[in-house]
Amino acid sequence: MTLETWLIYLVATLGLSLTPGPNSLLALTHGAIHGPTRTLKTIAGGAVGFACVIALSMFGIASLLTLAEELLLVMKIIGGIYLVWLGIQVWRSPAPGRSDMTNDGVCGWHMARQGFLAALSNPKVILFFGAFLPQFINPSNDLWIQFLIMMLTFVLIECLVELFIAGFAKSVSNWLGRCGKGFNRVCGSLFVLIGVGLPLSN
């Protein structure tokens, strides 16, 4: 992979990471509730999930899902159910920004697991990477080195974007102290809408 190709991939990855999705929404919610430092656990879980998604794409799972429409539908339904469940949990969460709210009992592993599962909850991401990554591959060079570079680049950019989102959410904590419950309900509703719309999408 040449430097020029990598720079184009970097810009495309940044654009993809800035597109709203389950993980960015989760980073926003956790950032508001737990703060950016604790949300690093969520972001780390999502990073592992995205690395797995890219690895699956590299091994040709995207082609398998394209051929097996029934398998894709099953994965969409499972992913959709998880996002609906996650939306309900966000809806019922304590309002962020409250001075009496404590996060000491929140398990870091639980936050990381949510980030990981959110990254895996949409099988269309696998299909996207299956079509996205080959555009930047040079067949005459070492494929595994190129795959590794693209994986690390995407994961790093995604983590930085999600950390920025989490920090932004914490910076408006005063506003959330007044409207925090409504914020939870909006985010929870978005998760539910994504989860319901996932199995219905083409």
Automatic annotation (TrEMBL):
Q: How is it placed in the membrane, per its record?
A: Multi-pass membrane protein
**Record localization:** Cell membrane
* GO function term, MF aspect, one: amino acid transmembrane transporter activity
Q: Write down what this protein is called.
A: LysE family translocator
TM segments? 6-28, 40-65, 71-91, 116-137, 143-170, 182-200
Question: Which keywords annotate this record?
Answer: Cell membrane, Membrane, Transmembrane, Transmembrane helix
Keyword DNA repair in record = no
Q: Which InterPro entries match?
A: LeuE-type
Alphabetical GO CC annotations of the entry are: plasma membrane
